Amino acid sequence: MEPRNQAGLPATVGANPGAPRTVFERLRDSTHASIHIHATYRHSNKICEGLTMSDMEPRAYYDEFGENEWERLDRDPVTRMEFENTTDYLETHLPESGHVLDVGGAAGRYACWLAERGYDVTLVDVSAKQVELARENADKRGLEAQISAEQGDVRDLRFEADRFDAVCCLGGPLSHVVDDAERATAMAELRRVASTDSPVFVSVIGRFAAIRDILKFTLDASHRLLAPIAEDGKYTEARVEEYSDGEGWAECHFFRADEFESELESAGFEVEQLVGLEGVANRMKTELEEADEEAVESVREVVRMLREDRTVVDFSEHILAVCRN
Questions:
Q1: In this structure, are residues 323 and 269 in contact, taking their beta carbons and an 8 Å threshold?
Q2: Looking at residue 92, what is its pLDDT?
Q3: Would 187 disulfide with which of 72, 112, 267, 307, CB 3.0-4.6 Å?
Q4: What pLDDT was estimated at residue 69?
Q5: In whole angstroms, what is the distance from residue 167 CA to residue 36 CA?
Q6: Which residues contact 189 (CB under 8 A, 6 or more apart)?
Q7: What is the rounded distance in angstroms from the CA atom of residue 295 to the CA atom of residue 298?
């Protein structure tokens, strides 16, 4: 059997983690929510040639991001914590078998993890490139019979009601639905296609992590974004044009924990647990890459210990909600 790394992926994925990486690569891979990415883009054209950071439409962004989205969750100790903590809750709350919908599943990281454990998976993603990669990744692992992948939109899922035994929307797809009414529609769609009493897992991008990105990486260029994002969580092309330099990441809504829970409950979900997936390791990717494994394991243990603490949840880069339909 092919050797696997800590994230459950083939050892060749994200290999040579100790090799030097460019500033752009470190920032690009830090999180889906890397507001600071546009500040380094202008100085990194050779590295990110073809990646149009002025286009903040999520579909275009993830088409261009390509294989990097598959590799993202194994780039460094903190992104591996996001993956490991998510799968901890999947293992605990998923039914023993069944058909799982993976909305916004990108290149199939979670879909492959699910299929390897015996689940049938339907993956939907807005990006045609990510769907293509998901099919390739399933084929490479001999999982093509268990994983189907198609292009689609979380706001308008084509499936009949009560279709799936569990629903996943992981890594922040709902954060890219910036309009409040459209996001409510998306949450209603996730609930509609889930069978009665089935688990639904949703993770979004936290607001404090986005604010900390600006403070840590692009304060001079983007400080005028701080107050608007703190107020309502909206990171839009119009705001980047008005308050920054016009170059940004994909449009996004950054969540507070209470807000996230309230929106899910308004959609009809019972929210059983909120989880801070990176918790106190938030924005510590570079530091933990340089730490020894014993130190990283101590951090990993504390992140697990505190991941359900409400303050830690609010502070985390990604917030996971474990819901019941």
A1: yes
A2: 98
A3: 267
A4: 86
A5: 31
A6: 154, 155, 156, 157
A7: 5
Residue given tokens 């390739």 in the structure block? 136
**Is 41 strand, coil or helix?**
helix
State yes or no: pLDDT of 111 exceeds 70.
yes
- The percent of residues in the chain predicted with pLDDT above 90, rounded, is 74
Q: Which residue has the tokens 């990415």?
A: 37
Q: Tell me the per-residue pLDDT of 135-170, one tens digit each, with 9 for 90 and over.
A: 999 999 999 999 999 999 999 999 999 999 999 999
Of 30-44, 61-75, 135-149, 301-315, the least confident = 30-44
Strand partners, 204: 319
Measured CA to CA, the distance from residue 318 to residue 225 in angstroms comes to 20
Find out whether 48 and 28 touch, Cβ atoms under 8 Å. yes
CA–CA distance, 113 with 102 (Å, rounded to integer): 11
In 3D space, the residue among 158, 165, 168 whose CA is nearest the CA of residue 103 turns out to be: 168
Give the other-Cβ count within 10 Å of 220's Cβ. 6
Q: Are 119 and 140 in contact (CB under 8 A)?
A: no
Predicted local confidence at residue 248, as pLDDT: 82
**pLDDT tens string 247-294:** 888 999 999 999 999 999 999 999 999 999 999 999 898 999 999 999
- DSSP per position, 163-190: -BSEEEE-SSGGGG--SHHHHHHHHHHH
pLDDT of 203 higher than 80: yes
Give the burial class of 104: count Cβ atoms within 10 A of its Cβ; 0-12 exposed, 13-18 middle, 19 or more buried.
buried
Task: From 183, 203, 225, select the one nearest 317 (Cα to Cα).
Answer: 203
